[in-house]
Amino acid sequence: PVPAPAASVVSAPATQASVEGVEEKVLLRPKNGVAPPSERRLSSAAGSKESVRRAQLAANWIDKEIRKLITQIQLHGQLNARGQHTVTYGKLFAETFQLFEALSGTLRTARKHQVVHFEGEMLFQGTSDNVEITLLRDSIPDSTIETYTYAQAKEVTAKQGKGFGTKSLQNSQSRCHVCTKIVYPMEFVGAADKAFHKVCFKCSTCSTKLTATTYCCVNDQFFCQTHYNQNFLEVRERAHMLFEHHTQHTHT
């Protein structure tokens, strides 16, 4: 039995469980029922049908990454005495670094859901190459928006574009600069410390789709290179030419 928590906290609905001897810790919640930011579920921002749909897409994405992880461990691992597939992190990374956006983050999320087991908190290429990863489950059920947290969604899609500001990346519930709706990790792109949905990140003049490395920003407005040149550089050059012409005319 799980010991009764202190009076200031209550235990989460999930009970203590064990898979092949690996225990899952009981999550604690504040007395008022509000989860800390790191434990907020994808469902916490789901209100409209559209937000529910997008939260479910995020859950489906994580399911896909974990199922891909299961397949790769089975493909590159070896069976141990218990008949479980095991593989070192170094080998798994070498074989799959082009398949995952964030292998270490996907492993952490999979461990929290008792799909794999490994020692240590975070795995790093080089220093963690000899850490053994054990596959505990061969499949997972389809998830709902209650299954994963924002932090887990961010871990699984942790690859970051050069144009995305640090402060925005650290905010797991960033809102789109254009439509103001929540941006889920697989949807976002960013620039100038602002978050965008990929479909919202467009040139203000022609609506051409922008990327984190192909935009120009002036006063929080974003442009493609062509219209930045037309709207600003050419105007600046004409003003400079007029100024030079006026200066020459004054001195003559």
Q: Any overview of this molecule?
A:
- With 252 residues, the chain is an alpha+beta fold.
- Helices cover 34% and strands 15% of the residues.
- It has a 4-stranded antiparallel β-sheet. A two-stranded antiparallel ribbon has the order 1-4. The chain has a two-stranded antiparallel ribbon with strand order 2-3.
- β2 and β3 form a beta hairpin.
- α3 packs antiparallel against α4.
- It starts with 8 loop residues before the first strand and ends with a helix.
- The N terminus is likely disordered.
Report the radius of gyration as a whole number of Å: 25 Å
What letter string, H or E per element, gives the SSE order? EEEEHEEHHEEHHEEEEH
Order of neighbouring strands in the sheet with most strands = 5-6-8-7
User: How far do the termini sit from each other?
Assistant: 96 Å
Q: Tell me the total number of β-strands.
A: 12
What low-confidence regions span 5 or more consecutive residues with pLDDT below 50? 1-31, 159-171
- Strand proportion: 15-25%
Residues in helix, %: 25-40%
Number of discrete helical segments? 6
Shape from CA axes? elongated
Q: Regarding quaternary structure, how should these chains be classified?
A: single chain
Largest sheet: 4 strands, antiparallel
The chain-level structural class is alpha+beta
- Name the average pLDDT: 75
Task: Summarize the structure in short.
It contains 6 helices and 12 strands.
How is this fold's topology laid out?
Layout: E1 9-11, E2 17-19, E3 22-24, E4 28-30, H1 49-76, E5 78-79, E6 85-88, H2 89-96, H3 103-112, E7 116-117, E8 132-135, H4 150-156, H5 166-170, E9 188-191, E10 194-197, E11 216-218, E12 221-223, H6 225-251
Antiparallel strand pairs: 1-4, 2-3, 5-6, 6-8, 7-8, 9-10, 11-12
Helix pairs in contact: 1-3, 3-4
